[in-house]
Amino acid sequence: MENLEALAFAMGAFFSFMLWRVLYSCWVLPIRAYRKLAINGFSGPPPSFPLGNTNEMKKKKKISKKVDESCSAVSNDIHSSAFPYFAQWQKSYGKVFMYWLGTEPFLYISDPEFLKKISSGVMGKSWGKPTVFKNDRKPMFGGGLVMAEGDDWVRHRHVITPAFSPANLKAMSSMMVETTTSMLDRWTKLINSGNPEIEVEGEIISTAGEIIAKTSFGMNFENGRTVFKKLRAMQVALFKSNRYVGVPFSKYLCFGQNLEAKRLGKDIDALLLKIIEDKKRSMAENRGGGGKEHQNLLGVLLEGKHVDGDEKGEKLSTRELVDECKTFFFGGHETTALAITWSLLMLAVHPMWQSELREEIKQVIGDGNIDATMLVGLKKMGWVMSEVLRLYPTAPNVQRQVRGDIHVDKDSVIPDGTNMWIDVVSMHHDRDFWGEDVNEFKPERFKEDSLYGGCQHKMGYLPFGFGGRMCVGRNLSTMEYKIVMSLILTRFSFSLSPNYTHLPSIMLSLRPMQGLPLIMKPL
Ligand code: HEM
Ligand SMILES: *[C@@H]1O[C@H](CO)[C@@H](O)[C@H](O)[C@H]1NC(C)=O
Ligand SMILES: *[C@@H]1O[C@H](CO)[C@@H](O)[C@H](O)[C@H]1NC(C)=O
Question: Which residues are heme-binding (predicted)?
Fold first, then answer.
């Protein structure tokens, strides 16, 4: 009898404790965060519990879709179609305000001066990355560089940066040429069989995926192709349907989907581990011999003796290396592929720039093979890339989480733990900093001012992020961009298909919702 009572009591205590914990983290903590931000003068759309502003964000998305489908002209004024809810809230609350993803408070920032003020005193290693996204995207990035923080981030960044050295990048260029050429051969076949319309977005994303997989871990290795397929399947599983990031227990809402992503994640990890072990073994066997082996980042990292099972210090463990391979894949292929895709759209509607670039390619590269050292000479192509990343920033936002209070003014503080969402699309389309022609495609902006394109504020142009955490892959993506664009432009001229619908929208990256069909003509 006594035992039963004790058991009942223990169980009662346990459930009360669990209930308290749930209430505390989903209710008390967010309210505290809300008050703290409100005291410091940050307001925004009123949130509801437990969805925050999520429902409004979903609703605004649907409405904007309908409106856009009726107009077919290509307008570069895309902020209100990419982020309709932010565009709406900006009207009421200005360029800095607070909104809620579920029970997570986010500080929205689209004012470069405010961003400069709060970020100037914070080192790369002192920034956090939002915990909600870390959890949500764990199967994709794990603890890789995009998500790492503090000393861990310093160590990873230090080991990884040299892998992107000009010499290492150069060694990858012929692989990029080969992979792209086989895509273009396929296009030629399609065109010759009477199909001049090619949906280039899908084509380029899969080619860029192949390039980045070869670049990161080498697809020639036995399991590379399988890893590649599973990585793509995982991205689809994670992002295909409605999600409620930040809403408590939402992972149980999308249970099947999460399970699928998790399962794929496990498979991928196992395959990558095997690739790494195989590679280690074959490198140990070929010591002093090889050289051609490490035309990929994994090979460079292994070669540099930066990797070892359990040693501490300036090294990555095999487990960490797996996460970095995935991070390169997800951070690197879609962003670059979409930069190329949006460029093809801009060039299709501005044929004058097609001829300008063709002329430049003829002068710089001639009729011979592309050599990586020539690519710096493609200046105009560089302006086009910068201008396209201004109008269509394929990484449309930058995220941070505050670690330790940040003092804005004498009496305003951004409290520890606040998430920050920096709206790059908005800043790149801000008349106040770019002038009246802000929405026009004008690559020549970057002629005089190659870094900022004449933007009135140095923090107003952020296609690759800012500060110490700026993208490590930007030189790699520039090289890939120039190689792929040069090959396309020398073999084809192209115009927009009447089937194209201009719907720039966000699915992690900024992409044309219904692809990009172009009419291709062999030259
Ligand atoms: C046009 C192509 C690309 C764009 C627009 C882009 C954009 C970005 C942005 C906005 C960030 C966040 C920076 C910040 O938080 O301040 C970032 C970080 C990163 N990117 Fe890229 N990226 C591109 C290509 C690549 C490629 C090709 C790779 C690798 C192969 C790559 C790997 C990474 C990594 C590892 C980080 C995390 C850096 C850190 O936190 O220290 N990216 N990128
Ligand atoms: C537009 O799409 C339709 C249906 O897919 C196709 O039959 C047609 O040929 C396309 N138009 C052009 C100009 O390619
Ligand atoms: C990219 O290349 C430039 C010039 O070669 C160099 O100054 C810069 O540090 C490189 N950036 C990265 C992220 O490797």
Answer: 471
Rg (the chain; Cα; Å): 25
**Class of residue 125 by CB neighbours under 10 A (exposed 0-12, middle 13-18, buried 19+):** middle
Nearest atom in ligand 2 to the alpha carbon of residue 517 is 14
Question: How would DSSP label each residue in 229-264?
Answer: HHHHHHHHHHHSS---TTSTTHHHHTHHHHHHHHHH
- Distance between CA atoms of residues 147 and 390, nearest Å: 25
26 known ligand binder: no
Give the pLDDT of the chain (523 residues) as one tens digit per residue.
678 888 888 888 888 888 887 777 777 777 777 787 777 788 889 888 778 888 888 876 655 554 455 445 799 999 998 999 999 999 999 999 999 988 888 999 999 999 999 999 899 999 999 998 888 888 889 999 999 999 999 999 999 999 999 999 999 999 999 999 999 999 999 999 999 999 999 999 999 999 998 888 887 666 777 888 888 888 877 776 556 676 776 666 667 777 888 888 899 999 889 888 888 888 888 765 455 545 688 888 887 655 554 445 567 888 899 999 999 988 899 999 999 999 999 999 999 999 999 999 999 999 889 999 999 999 999 999 999 999 999 999 999 999 999 988 877 889 899 999 999 999 999 999 999 999 999 999 999 999 999 999 999 999 999 999 999 999 999 999 999 999 999 999 999 999 999 999 988 899 999 999 999 999 9
90 token code pair: 């900006």
Type and span of the H or E element at 523: none
450 within ligand 3 shell (Cβ under 6 A): no
Nearest in space to 399 (alpha carbons), one of 152, 101, 88, 163 = 101
- Neighbour tally for 197: CB within 10 Å: 15
Report residue 432 as tokens. Answer: 């106040």
Report the C-alpha gap between 281 and 276 in whole angstroms.
9
Alpha-carbon distance of 398 to 466, in angstroms, equals 9
CA of 80 to the centre of ligand 2 (A): 29
Between CA 507 and CA 81 the distance in angstroms is 13
Angle at 308 between CA 305 and CA 310, to 5 degrees: 150
Distance from residue 475's CA to the centre of ligand 3 (Å): 6
Q: Is 77 left (phi over 0), alpha (psi -120 to 50) or beta?
A: beta
